[in-house]
Structures are given as structure tokens and as C-alpha cells.
Specification:
By secondary structure, this protein is α+β, with helices and mostly antiparallel strands. The protein is about 20% helix and about 45% strand. It contains three helices and six strands. A hairpin with a 5-residue loop joins β5 (about 90-105) and β6. This is SnoaL-like domain-containing protein.
Length: about 130
């Protein structure tokens, strides 16, 4: 599986990884020492819990698409805003607006360290 060479590639690489439905492939897009919010108000950290959250998302039937609304980079960190969905046979299974914090790795690739999948929803209260 291709790794993201720039922060602007992260969303496309993440969607392709999720579409493999392989938890290990998806986990390679993340820094598993980070955090993920697989649903509003639910923060997950720790490698085992992180993998379980990814497994649940991979279980949603359909194809994931991610549109990058913006990606802002400063040195070895970047923040992205996304609009994503999983669609199966023309029916949207889940869709949201997310915010992702990415960090460049020692090998030059980029990984997500914070994935707030619903972080840009208008009705979300922090």
C-alpha cells in the first residue's frame, strides 16, 4: 500500500486503505500513538483500542470517499479538513466532516496523529 509522501495525499491514501477492509493496511496510515474519534464524543487511544475502532469502521459495507476541503502545512505538521462518506450500492451508510492532524515521519511519509472524524460537524459541541 502506498504511503502519503505529502500531507495533501493523506486523505486519498486513507480512503484507499479503508477500501481494502484490512485493519493492518489502515493502521499504517495512522500513528497509533495518537487518538481517533470514531464517533462524536468517543476518544480512543492506545494501539489495541485504536485497532478495534478501525476494525469497526472497516466493517461498514461500501466504498469510502474522502474529499480534502483544505490542508494547511507548517514544517512537519499539517491540519486537514475533510468531507467523507461510505456508500454502498448508491446508499450512504455514513458521512461526516472531519479534521485530521498529520505529522511527517522520520522516513518522510505522513501519518495521521489525530483523526476527529466528525470534528467539523456544525452541531458538534466540544
Amino acid at each position: 500500500m502506498k504511503s502519503a509522501k505529502t500531507p495533501h495525499e493523506v486523505h486519498a491514501v486513507l480512503a484507499a486503505a479503508f477500501n481494502t477492509k484490512d485493519v493492518n493496511v489502515v493502521m499504517n496510515v495512522y500513528d497509533a500513538n495518537g487518538i481517533i474519534f470514531p464517533e462524536p464524543g468517543k476518544e480512543i487511544s492506545g494501539r489495541a483500542q485504536f485497532a478495534e475502532a478501525v476494525k469497526s469502521i472497516c466493517a461498514v459495507p461500501g466504498v469510502m470517499e474522502i474529499k480534502t476541503v483544505y490542508c494547511l502545512q507548517s514544517g512537519d505538521v499539517a491540519v486537514g479538513r475533510s468531507e467523507w462518506s461510505v456508500t454502498d450500492n448508491g446508499k450512504t451508510q455514513v458521512a461526516a466532516k472531519g479534521i485530521e492532524l498529520m505529522k511527517q515521519q522520520p522516513d518522510g511519509s505522513w501519518k495521521i496523529i489525530i483523526d476527529h472524524a466528525f470534528g467539523a460537524e456544525a452541531n458538534l459541541i466540544a
